[in-house]
């Protein structure tokens, strides 16, 4: 197998992650829908990460990195972790830490919705508030790391997080071995990079597509230019899990392994999300709808018909009901 | 055990299992630690929202069509008619289409366009009547006469009831140690079918009917020991699948086999429905939320703790999503 030294992880790291997360993570089911197949013109296989612990795939990466830290620590009780995230990664770190018996700090912006603050606290983590903005979040996380002796965990760039996310592709290809493609939404790139390393090892001919909001299209622009071009500022998209830019660890993997990026409009994301609720009866969040929208897009429909069986990652189902109600 | 006084026997349900096998889904059972925490018991959700046409009604409809065809000499001239604004109309349309039988579904002209379109989409001829129970029944009778169509009641037809009972046989194969089953109630077809099937397999199992307080004919009937239908006029409840009264065929079964009726307020129904969307990520309709609300109610919580494992039927997932913003 090719030289993985240039990437931050290898397939073996994903294999180890599979074992590490086994006691805690769910093996999520794959669902199919004749209705969605007819809309897409292909056979779709939905990997239901919305049924994962904390309601999103992020639990895989969080549990993998924290378990590895705990396993390698001399004094497990002294291990502390910190991250900045108001979303799924914050909850994932909180729950993983609770399950492994260590202390977690989650830095959240002071404007975060109460429901998200409560969720993180509910899992036993300490919430530390900061001002708005990427800079403020990182500075506070660094401060907590120093003062508490906590290890900082990046939601998408930490190699053990990426390897953890890759486990979903190992599972999916055990469940549906003859997939021709996998489509997943992209933000920092942790999920897509993990899927690339895992899936391309198991089935080198498989095609990996990233779905992305056009309002947050750093991956699309980067892929077209052949170099990493982060977003200029916080994007305006309903897909609140797709707002980060592809990072320094995930970019090299994406650049080499990704087949293409499919960008979708806000309207397409909402439509696709609604279709999944209505027809498949599962409550996905808009960031998962991005991947569904990508598969339903004209661009994807124009892909050669030998791409028959398409895996679609339903990355999560954490949303604010009144907010989604206003969209439908 | 003598079933002669009831319109169906356990053997009828067993026959139904075989009849519907080629077409109906064996729906999965889901669990949720979060919901267990709220209920104080172990809950098992029978996911009939994933059944064909998105609701359990397909079981009864398909069984009834098959049974009718068996009894009909001149199969090519068979036509069926029903009155339904909801899931039974869709269930019967699809069932009849699969067996090549023309179907007429009488709907009130006040029915939401989305429901009319759904029924048409499954291949039935929709006939609109003026609003009101009498107009509805009169139109159904007119169609039956003019078209020579056989009337199939959505909850009183014995083959429909037997078909609904198949979900209890499946459920007890999937979770043999259930102490109780909770299902919402309307005309009583589902509850009666479950009673006959479940009580035969496990005589000491408890069956609870969940009902909107705003449509509490079953609760009143059960308390009085005699059938007391709702007074004229459709009841005012968000649970739009639960607006009919327990009928002549289902009442005797319910009277003898049901353990109790739990009524829930509109607020409780919406809260429970929202909880399932948010925490279990399943897009159930409010009529299914009634059963969940019942299990979360004070009355149910006060039941003896030896009733540990409770099955809840998530009866359907056909929601008009454009209504969400008026609910939340």
Task: Give the topology.
The complex is a heterodimer of chains A (328) and B (328).
Chain A: H1 11-21, E1 30-31, H2 34-40, E2 43-48, H3 58-72, E3 80-84, H4 88-100, E4 103-109, H5 114-122, E5 126-130, H6 134-148, E6 151-152, H7 159-175, E7 181-185, H8 190-202, E8 207-213, H9 218-225, H10 250-257, E9 260-264, H11 266-280, H12 286-296, H13 298-301, E10 309-314, H14 321-327
Parallel strand pairs in A: 2-10, 3-4, 3-6, 4-5, 7-8, 7-10, 8-9
Antiparallel strand pairs in A: 1-2
Helix pairs in contact in A: 1-3, 1-7, 3-4, 3-7, 4-5, 7-8, 8-10, 11-12
Chain B: H1 10-20, E1 29-30, H2 33-39, E2 42-47, H3 57-71, E3 80-83, H4 87-98, E4 103-108, H5 113-121, E5 125-129, H6 133-147, E6 150-151, H7 158-174, E7 180-184, H8 189-201, E8 206-212, H9 217-224, H10 250-257, E9 260-264, H11 266-280, H12 286-296, H13 298-301, E10 309-314, H14 324-327
Estimated radius of gyration of chain A:
18 Å
Strand arrangement in the largest pleated sheet of chain A: 1-2-10-7-8-9
Largest interface: A-B, 19 and 20 residues
Instruction: Give the mean pLDDT of chain B.
Output: 94
- The helical percent of chain B reads 40-55%
H/E element sequence of chain A: HEHEHEHEHEHEHEHEHHEHHHEH
- Major sheet of chain B: 6 strands, mixed
End-to-end distance of chain A: 47 Å
Strand content of chain A: 15-25%
Per DSSP, the total helix count of chain B is 14
User: What Rg of chain B do the Cα atoms give?
Assistant: 18 Å
Overall geometric form of chain B: globular
């Amino acid at each position: 197998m090719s030289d993985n030294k240039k990437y931050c992880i290898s397939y073996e790291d994903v294999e180890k992650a599979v074992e590490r997360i086994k006691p805690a993570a769910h093996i999520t089911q794959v669902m199919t829908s004749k209705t969605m197949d007819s809309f897409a013109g292909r056979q779709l296989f939905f990997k239901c990460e919305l049924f994962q612990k904390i309601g999103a795939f992020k639990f895989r990466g969080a549990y993998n990195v924290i378990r590895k830290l705990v396993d390698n620590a001399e004094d497990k009780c002294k291990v502390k972790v910190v991250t900045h995230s108001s979303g799924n990664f914050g909850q994932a770190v909180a729950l993983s830490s609770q399950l492994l018996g260590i202390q977690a700090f989650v830095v959240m912006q002071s404007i975060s919705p109460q429901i998200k603050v409560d969720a993180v606290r509910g899992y036993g983590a300490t919430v530390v508030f900061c001002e708005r903005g990427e800079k403020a979040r990182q500075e506070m996380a660094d401060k907590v790391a120093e003062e508490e002796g906590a290890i900082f965990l990046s939601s998408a760039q930490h190699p053990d997080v990426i390897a953890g996310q890759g486990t979903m592709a190992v599972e999916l290809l055990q469940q549906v071995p003859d997939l021709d493609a996998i489509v997943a939404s992209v933000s920092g790139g942790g999920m897509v990079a993990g899927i690339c390393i895992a899936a391309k090892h198991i089935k080198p001919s498989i095609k990996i597509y990233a779905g992305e909001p056009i309002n947050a299209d750093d991956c699309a622009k980067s892929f077209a230019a052949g170099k990493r071009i982060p977003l200029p500022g916080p994007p305006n998209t309903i897909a609140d899990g797709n707002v980060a830019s592809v990072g320094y660890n995930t970019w090299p993997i994406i650049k080499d392994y990704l087949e293409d990026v499919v960008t979708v409009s806000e309207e397409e994301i909402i439509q696709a999300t609604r279709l999944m609720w209505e027809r498949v009866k599962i409550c996905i969040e808009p960031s998962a709808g991005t991947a569904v929208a990508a598969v339903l897009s004209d661009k994807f429909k124009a892909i050669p018909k030998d791409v028959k069986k398409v895996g679609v990652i339903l990355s999560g189902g954490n949303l604010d009901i009144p907010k989604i109600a206003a969209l439908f | 055990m003598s079933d002669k006084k009831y319109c169906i026997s356990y053997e009828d349900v067993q026959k139904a299992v075989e009849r519907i096998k080629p077409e109906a889904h064996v729906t999965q059972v889901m669990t949720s630690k979060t919901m267990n925490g709220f209920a104080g018991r172990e809950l098992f959700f029978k996911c009939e929202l994933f059944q064909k046409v998105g609701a359990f009604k397909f079981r009864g409809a398909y069984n009834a069509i098959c049974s009718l065809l068996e009894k009909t000499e001149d199969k090519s001239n068979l036509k069926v008619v029903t009155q339904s604004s909801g899931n039974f109309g869709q269930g019967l349309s699809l069932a009849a289409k699969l067996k090549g039988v023309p179907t007429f579904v009488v709907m009130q002209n006040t029915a939401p366009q989305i429901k009319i379109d759904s029924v048409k989409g499954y291949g039935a001829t929709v006939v609109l009547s003026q609003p009101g129970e009498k107009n509805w029944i009169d139109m159904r009778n007119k169609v039956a006469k003019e078209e020579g169509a056989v009337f199939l009641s959505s909850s009183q037809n014995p083959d429909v009831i037997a078909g609904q009972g198949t979900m209890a046989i499946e459920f007890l194969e999937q979770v043999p140690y259930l102490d109780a089953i909770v299902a919402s109630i309307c005309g009583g077809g589902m509850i009666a079918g479950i009673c006959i099937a479940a009580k035969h397999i496990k005589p000491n199992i408890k069956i609870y009917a969940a009902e909107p307080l705003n449509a509490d004919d079953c609760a009143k009937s059960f308390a009085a020991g005699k059938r007391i239908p709702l007074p004229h006029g459709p009841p005012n409840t968000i649970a739009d699948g639960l607006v009919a009264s327990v009928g002549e065929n289902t009442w005797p079964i319910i009277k003898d086999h049901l353990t109790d009726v739990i009524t829930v307020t509109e607020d409780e129904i919406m809260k429970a429905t929202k909880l399932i969307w948010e925490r279990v990520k399943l897009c159930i309709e409010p009529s299914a939320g009634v059963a969940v609300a019942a299990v979360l109610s004070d009355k149910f919580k006060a039941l003896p703790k030896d009733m540990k494992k409770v099955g809840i039927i998530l009866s359907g997932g056909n929601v008009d999503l454009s209504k969400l913003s008026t609910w939340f």
